[in-house]
Amino acid sequence: MSERGRDDDGRDWCDDGDQLEVVRRAERATRFGWAAITGVAGLLGCALIAVPVVLLGAVVACAYVVMAAQHP
User: Fold this and answer.
1) In this predicted model, what pLDDT tens digit does every residue of 13-35 receive, in sequence order?
2) What per-residue string of b and e applies to 23-58 under the rule 16 or more CB within 10 Å gives b?
3) Is the Cβ–Cβ distance between 2 and 8 less than 8 Å?
């Protein structure tokens, strides 16, 4: 301690600047994490809707082919 209440780099001993920066970075990382989770959940939701629609389309197409083959 060079001066009373100050560190060697001249900051006050009760300076919370570094801690506040760490908290800001953690909040930013948390927001990014939740955005990634939301994006993945949305993509999975779209896939859960798309797969049955494609399968239903395949069933309808197969039924059309079978019906067309039976009635020339």
Assistant:
1) 666 778 888 999 999 999 999 99
2) eeeeeeeeeeeeeeeeeeeeeeeeeeeeeeeeeeee
3) yes
